[in-house]
């Protein structure tokens, strides 16, 4: 039986960032990771640090996302210093391509609305000529884009690895192969995994799609469901795209990743030809030169979606010291999770700015 | 390193970076260049390490070369034709043109 200041349940990007952030403050931390039987959204992530379209109708989410983007350089720098892993953060702006005049108008409206709701961050619409100057290979059918100067991207697998290595470096325990059976509460928490027992003053549920089962054990609600995304990856190519975009990005090592499909099909991670064909067609319209690229990998993964697409953060009213943390933007929000959420958990109180992320918002009966 | 067995097939010539190389009809580009003594076939995209054919059956992708102007082709899976133009490939393939050329003697014939 081992006792900790904090047990984080879920070894993905959310749990990893919270665990690392707490251990960095000197807390003794255990990170319980289920294993390869889990759906592991962190292994399928596209890798965007994406701000421009997050939080329409939900200003606290827009502000939280911006804060994370601001904290990201400190996160990347700290990880590199402590673990030697360069997570390939690049925040030189992001482009949302508009494939039609209708899409352009809708994007312009969205950007204006978010500016009015949540304040400006420099996002602006750019037309064909300016877009061509930024992306010389852009296809003729792309009518323009929204450019946001604080968007970027990073390598999600290196991020995951460095968070786990960093946790170990701070003396934390990364414990894989632990599927939590039950959580008992008597003022502190006892987490039961088979015959093992782990004790802690605090517990964070950050188990992705597994959170739905775990949260009620500590008086929380995490009504998350899967939203499938497929990703198509090319061979390594000489640099052809300087900016992150919502549909395609070129990694630091030259691979071109294409994605942004959304399928509500339950717990299904099979890749399918029609979706891959759609992804390829859209990206060939955006970057026609990709017709000569060889595809080397495809995969599917499940986003962890709440009913409104915004994160859940909450401290349990009935089990103080138990917190929920989930979102579908494990890379984007890693800066905030590590450097803002983790300190709040260790201070035993979430700030007022996170009150809007209470899962009670889903309890309102439909009108 | 490699020595051909007695081979009754007809000889054909192709071009490797400006020099004429003799192959046997039906051979793959990789087999012909190994027989000719080429050591390094490409330099990898990240570290620039030298690579040569390994599996010779289309699986390992370590024999990638520029063949008739198309980069990242598997030399072990392409049959030599008369007059074919073959070059080593340095680093990642560029989509807007030919592969970056080798400018040193890495990968010279043994």
> What fold name stands as the CATH topology of the largest domain in chain A?
FAD/NAD(P)-binding domain
Q: Give me the CATH architecture of the largest domain in chain A, please.
A: 3-Layer(bba) Sandwich
- Unreliable stretches of chain A (pLDDT < 50, length at least 5) are none
Q: What number is the mean pLDDT of chain A? A: 96
Low-confidence region ranges of chain B: none
What is the CATH H-level superfamily of the largest domain in chain A?
A: FAD/NAD(P)-binding domain
Biggest interface between chains: A-B, 13 and 11 residues
Residue fraction in strands of chain A:
25-35%
Tertiary shape of chain A: globular
Outline the structure in words.
Chain A has 367 residues and is an alpha/beta fold. Chain A has three domains: 2-83 and 156-223 and 308-363, FAD/NAD(P)-binding domain (3-Layer(bba) Sandwich), CATH 3.50.50.60; 94-149, no CATH class; 225-305, D-Amino Acid Oxidase, Chain A, domain 2 (2-Layer Sandwich), CATH 3.30.9. Chain A has nine helices and 18 strands. Chain A has helices spanning 13-24, 41-44, 59-83, 101-118, 128-134, 156-169, 211-214, 273-286, 334-346, and strands at residues 2-9, 29-32, 48-49, 94-98, 124-127, 144-148, 152-153, 173-175, 182-185, 189-193, 196-205, 225-236, 244-245, 248-250, 255-258, 295-305, 312-315, 322-326. In chain A, the strands form four sheets. In chain A, strands 1, 2, 8, 9, 10, 11, 17 and 18 form an eight-stranded mixed beta sheet that branches. Chain A has a four-stranded mixed beta sheet with strand order 5-6-4-13. In chain A, helix 1 packs across helix 9, helix 3 (59-83) crosses helix 6 and helix 3 crosses helix 9. The radius of gyration of chain A is 20 Å and the shape is globular. The model of chain A has no long low-confidence stretch (mean pLDDT 96). By secondary structure, chain B is mainly beta. Chain B has a single domain, classed as Roll (Ubiquitin-like (UB roll)). Chain B has one helix and eight strands, in the order E-E-H-E-E-E-E-E-E. Chain B has one helix at residues 29-36; strands at 11-16, 19-24, 42-43, 50-51, 64-67, 70-74, 85-87, 89-90. Chain B has a five-stranded mixed beta sheet with strand order 2-1-7-5-6, with helices on one face. In chain B, strands 4-3-8 form a three-stranded mixed beta sheet, with no helix packed on it. In chain B, a hairpin with a 2-residue loop joins strand 1 (11-16) and strand 2. Classes of the chains: A alpha/beta (367), B mainly beta (110). The A-B interface holds A 137, 235-238, 240, 253-254, 289-290, 292-294 and B 45-46, 70, 72, 91-96, 100.
